[in-house]
Amino acid sequence: MRYVAAYLLAALGGKDNPNSADIEKILSSVGIEAEGEKLKKVISELNGKNIEELIAAGNFILEICCKMWEVHSSASIIWLFLW
Question: What angle (nearest 5°) sits at the alpha carbon of residue 43, between those of residues 39 and 45?
Fold first, then answer.
């Protein structure tokens, strides 16, 4: 998660496609040493993608999950009352 957060910070700071040096600089500023494989994975997954669209898609998924949980919770409470 810290790699994604650092990537997002770099993107918000004006970098269209943050590279490993950008992310390492952010992580090292808070005392975190970057692991090469994790760093490569995050960069390969996020480079070239629109950050605002990714966040919007993630918000949509979270919204659906929350609504499903509300329905499930309500059904469980009703079942308890009926039982």
Answer: 120
What sign for the dihedral angle of Cα 42, 44, 50, 54?
A: negative
pTM for this structure?
A: 0.68
- Residue spans of beta strands (DSSP E) within the chain: none
Q: Give pLDDT tens digits for 21-63.
A: 999 999 999 999 999 999 999 999 888 888 888 888 877 777 8
The gap between the terminal CA atoms of the chain, to the nearest Å, is 42
Asked if CATH classification 3.10.20.600 holds for the domain at 1-49, the reply, yes or no, is: no
Paired tokens of 58: 């993630």
Contact 37, 45 (CB under 8 A): no
